[in-house]
Design a protein that fits this description.
mainly alpha; 0% strand
């Protein structure tokens, strides 16, 4: 019986070490990829958003931006009414 336990323990250790080694490779490659993309990709400049002075105009600008973002630029606001 002790031979079976020894074989089971050996398989357990070899299996856990191989999983740990492979996960280490995955983490290292992931960090390397993230570093490379952050270093070599072009920097995205934020789009120009004009400053709006009055509160109503700010609300309209926010609603317009949200509709534009959700509909990918295809949505059109026909009217805005306070309920």
């Amino acid at each position: 019986m002790s031979e079976n336990y020894q074989l089971a323990l050996q398989l357990l250790i070899v299996g856990m070490l191989s999983v740990f080694f492979i996960l280490g490779i995955v983490v290292t490659l992931g960090k390397t990829l993230i570093f490379a993309v952050n270093k070599f990709s072009p920097e995205v400049k934020p789009s120009f958003i004009p400053r709006v002075r009055s509160l109503e105009n700010k609300k309209i600008a926010v609603i317009t931006s949200v509709v534009d973002l959700i509909t990918n630029g295809q949505g059109v606001i026909s009217s805005i009414k306070k309920i």
